[in-house]
Amino acid sequence: MRRLHALASVLVLAVSPVFAAATQTVVLDVQNMTCELCPITVKKSLEQVQGVVSAKVDLDKRTATVQFDPDKAAPTVLVKATTNAGFPSALHK
Predict the structure, then answer these.
(1) What's this model's pTM, rounded to 2 decimal places?
(2) Can you tell me the distance from the alpha carbon of 46 to that of 39, in angstroms, rounded to the nearest whole number?
């Protein structure tokens, strides 16, 4: 019975990546960031969006690089999240 459980666990771990959704990455141009605390607020607003895997905010470049699950989030939702936090953004061109 233990062997069966061990085998089942190995199979689940081996097959899981096949069913995992591919993530997408977007870069947002973020306005109104003027101090060291602004990127923290932007990052937290993005991390609260369901489906966001990671968010990295660069104060010097005024950008946010966001990795997300496209089945759970969309770039428009990310833009809305930063805008609602007081930092309007747009997709980087």
Answers:
(1) 0.77
(2) 11
